[in-house]
């Protein structure tokens, strides 16, 4: 496979890695299991159990496991063939997936910030309109 095609594969394969990692660690559909894991990661007796449960609450940590799963499923290798290609692909997938998640998180924050500003302006307009109606009466 050419370097260009490998790069395209990397960019495309990172999308589902990011999607799965983000969905499980942030979205509402997995809130209850995530809260359970958060409680267990804080109060579990052994280090292994704390870290095991923590992995389901951190998108960066979880993306490593998702990337490994996708490498097993797709057998994607980057730059080299064999175990070195899998190793390079693994870390590249994790890095690109986390860049995607970072961009997505910033976009969500910007959208929420704009929504808050719009609500504040609407509320201000309602209050200004009510005050003008009272003065007119």
List the SSEs and their pairings.
Elements: H1 3-26, H2 31-43, H3 47-54, H4 59-74, H5 83-136
Helix pairs in contact: 1-4, 1-5, 2-3, 4-5
Short description:
The protein has one domain. It is built from 5 helices and no strands. The chain has helices at 3-26, 31-43, 47-54, 59-74, 83-136.
Give structural notes:
The structure is a single chain. The chain is mainly α. Helix 1 (3-26) crosses helix 4 (59-74), helix 1 crosses helix 5 and helix 2 packs antiparallel against helix 3. It has one domain (3-136). It is built from five helices and no strands. The N and C termini lie far apart (78 Å).
SSE order, one letter for each helix or strand? HHHHH
Mean pLDDT: 89
Number of strands: 0
- The helicity comes to over 70%
Strand content: under 5%
Sequence stretches where pLDDT stays below 50 over 5 or more residues = none
Counting DSSP H or I runs of 4 or more residues, the number of helices is 5
Terminus-to-terminus distance: 78 Å
Radius of gyration: 23 Å
* Structure class: mainly alpha
**Please, how many domains?**
1
* Shape, per Cα inertia axes: elongated
Q: Please outline the major beta sheet.
A: none
